[in-house]
Every structure is written in C-alpha cells, then in structure tokens.
Write a structure and sequence with these properties.
Length: 176
C-alpha cells in the first residue's frame, strides 16, 4: 500500500471508529511501523485534517461536522460525578471537556473525551487515587462541559435527564 492510500485508510478507520484509535492499532492493521503512522498523522494534519491525539488514540474532528455539540453548565457534588457522566454517555453523548471560569485564574479547561462507562471508571480512578482533584472544586461545584451527540434530539434528551436530576444549571446551544 502506498502512502496516499494508507493515509486515506487511516482517515477512514478513524472516522468509522466509535472510539479513539491508537497508533499501535493502526500500525498493526496497516502493516507498517508506529513511526510511519505518526508521520502519516503529521502529513494529514498538514492537509488540514483536524486530528487530535488523546491518551487513548487519535480522533478526527473535521469529519464529524454532522455531530451536534452543546455547552452545558452543571452543578453537583463529587459523589455525583459518576452519575452525571453516566447519564450523558448512556443516552449517547460524549463529554469532550470540562471547564470553569475562575475569578482569579480565568478560563481553565481540561480535555476529557469520555464516551463510555469504562472511560468514566478510568477517569474516576485517577480522581479517587488523589492524583487529581475535580476542576469543579475551584468553583464550588459549578462547571461546564462541551458535549457531543449524533443529533440535537439526543442532546435535548441528555439535558432533560440532567435537569431532572438537578445537575443542569442552564444550557446553551452552539455549533449545532
């Protein structure tokens, strides 16, 4: 397989995946070294593919234009983090990030890219180990997430359920 064909296949594989794909996985599937995959990703980025790297692998954001996105403002306790995240992913959402607007530190944001319960467990394991504290604790529980789903209807269902549980402060639609 020549370079252009391989890069087209990389884009196709990442686009069709429900989860991030690691460089190791892509190298095995395509029969090349991981270093070749890293170089191909760099070339694809130079061609304006919005490929992001996460701790779990690669995602393409420019190919998900049909995905609906919404910023939600929420409030809950530390013990309710798991329920909040499970609610979002169980209905079909992906939690892209968490962010706060702090009076002293300004806008603070962390990428999460959480789309299933296993990823939630991994995230909570880090928090519960003392490795990190929830960002929301700097603003006494108030924080925001950018969430994504396949359509506006799914985002509406997520917001309705979060509101029923008392987590949702308000919601703002963006990039629909």
């Amino acid at each position: 397989m020549i370079g252009n064909e391989r890069r087209e296949k990389i884009v196709e594989l990442i686009k069709d995946s429900q989860k991030p794909l690691s460089g190791t996985y892509l190298s095995k599937v395509l029969g090349v070294s991981r270093q070749i995959i890293v170089q191909d990703i760099a070339l694809l980025r130079a061609l304006d593919y919005e490929i992001i790297s996460t701790s779990r692998g690669y995602l393409i954001t420019s190919l998900t234009l049909d995905i609906s996105e919404r910023v939600i403002n929420v409030f809950h306790t530390d013990t309710e983090i798991e329920d909040e995240l499970n609610t979002i992913v169980d209905i079909g959402g992906m939690v892209e990030n968490v962010f706060i607007d702090h009076k002293i530190y300004g806008h603070l944001e962390a990428k999460l890219n959480i789309s299933n319960r296993r990823e939630i467990k991994e995230f909570l394991k880090k928090i519960n180990s003392g490795e990190a504290k929830p960002l929301k604790n700097l603003t006494f529980g108030k924080h925001s997430h950018t969430i994504r789903a396949k359509d506006e209807y799914t985002l509406d269902l997520i917001c309705e359920e979060l509101e029923k549980k008392g987590y949702l402060i308000d919601n703002k639609k963006i990039n629909s």
